[in-house]
Amino acid sequence: MHTMSGLLGELEPEQRERLRALGSEVHFQAGERIFEEGGRADRFWILHTGSASLDMHVPGHRDVVIDHVRHGELLGWHWMFRPYVWTLGAQAESPVRALEFDALSVRTLCEEDKELGLVFTHAVAAVIGERLQRTRMRLIDLFGPYAPRDHVLGAL
Q1: How many other C-beta atoms are found inside a 10 Å radius of the C-beta of residue 38?
Q2: Is the pTM of this model over 0.85?
């Protein structure tokens, strides 16, 4: 799990402060939607307190929760890659206090400071890898008992 210090820990103190300066404090109430699947991914958050669920729309069913983001973790990474569209939705599970970042400002900073950009991109990539592994395990838990075993594992 990458926390704020883990996510930004590889940055030099001055780089870390430049990035943090782009953030602003926000709050979400329990049950509040943070972003919607298919929406424009133009920001991201580092959670200070609380937790959020990540869900996906399953046609003909209610949305399925596939992961949870907790305090200290990065919420949202689709802002980093074109076409900048959320592939999941997110909802506050409990009251959340977070540092919110404007994606364009952070992408611009990363472009201007190539060293910061490379280190930060690697840190976000590590989060993506962890999140994909957790999602894979969650989907196996959700659908594994109902499908042929080789079909489920082969599809993931």
Answers
A1: 12
A2: no
Domain count, the chain: 1
Per the CB < 8 A criterion, the answer to whether 92 and 16 are in contact is: no
Range of the domain at 15: 4-140
The domain that holds 69 is classified in CATH as 2.60.120.10
From residue 80, alpha-carbon distances to 101, 121, 136 in Å are 12, 9, 21
The tokens for 28 are: 């979400």
Contact 51, 94 (CB under 8 A): yes
Instruction: Kindly state whether residue 42 falls inside one of the protein's structural domains.
Output: yes
Express each pLDDT in 99-133 by its tens digit: 999 999 999 999 999 999 999 999 999 999 998 89
